[in-house]
Amino acid sequence: MNAAHRRLREATGAAHARVDALFGRFDLARRDDYAGLLAAHAEALLPVEALLDQGGAEAITEDWPQRRRAGVIQVDLDALGIILPAPESEDSVTSDAAMAGMLYVLEGSRLGGRFLARSIPDSWPRAYLGSHQPPHMWPELLEKLNLLLYEPEALETAVTAANQTFGRFEAAGTKWLAKVA
Ligand code: HEM
């Protein structure tokens, strides 16, 4: 494990444990819960992807367009008849180091998503949780983040952005869990 990965993983471990526990409370045998989980992920994911688009995340990893999941989550939301309000526009000045932290969280979230996809009845739309990418894409991203985050200050900026990104998932998950309860 490279130095940036180790620091990001350690510094966001508590946040990961919280979102893991939170999203584990959605009962994926119930369609409403599944819809709520997707709505929560979309609410957190879409604005972060928009920031990465505006900030030029291709400069960090040229395959950013292939990593985006706004399209696949929209397919599932449409299939389930979920209409979300357009995300509020946000300050789009984002440093490369902050984008690195966001990319770490979004791409890492695929790893747990694979497990969740197995709990969903076969007939349900699963473009988002089922969207696999070649296994080399995760270690390649971590290598790029390590090259970018060699200065301690940049690494701490990434850690802050990563924890803020986890915070978006936690806030959205808390809100949608209450709605489907
Ligand atoms: C029920 C929900 C979740 C479960 C069960 C879960 C489970 C997991 C598991 C098993 C891994 C390790 C996979 C591996 O090393 O191959 C992982 C990694 C990760 N997950 Fe989750 N996860 C969940 C939700 C999330 C969410 C909502 C996010 C962020 C939005 C997230 C972000 C991450 C990150 C960043 C990593 C990479 C950790 C590292 O190795 O540095 N996870 N998750």
Description of the structure:
With 181 residues, the protein is an all-alpha fold. The chain is built from eight helices and no strands. The mean pLDDT is 95. Bound molecules: protoporphyrin IX containing FE (HEM). Protoporphyrin IX containing FE (HEM) binds next to helix 1, helix 2, helix 6 and helix 8.
Structure keywords:
Heme oxygenase; mainly alpha; globular; 181 residues; 8 helices; binds protoporphyrin IX containing FE; Heme Oxygenase, Chain A; single chain
Share in β-strands: under 5%
Query: Could you state the oligomeric state of the chains shown?
Result: single chain
**Ligand types:** protoporphyrin IX containing FE
The separation of the N and C termini measures 39 Å
User: What composes the largest sheet?
Assistant: none
> Which second-level CATH architecture applies?
Up-down Bundle
SS summary, helix count: 8
CATH superfamily placement:
Heme oxygenase-like
* Low-pLDDT stretches: none
Class by alpha and beta content: mainly alpha
InterPro entries: Haem_Oase-like_multi-hlx
Protein name: Heme oxygenase
Organism: Sphingomonas trueperi
Topology:
Blueprint: H1 3-11, H2 13-23, H3 31-55, H4 64-67, H5 70-80, H6 96-117, H7 137-148, H8 152-180
The structure holds protoporphyrin IX containing FE.
Protoporphyrin IX containing FE binds at residues 5, 9, 16, 19-20, 23-24, 104-105, 108-109, 111-112, 115-116, 166, 169.
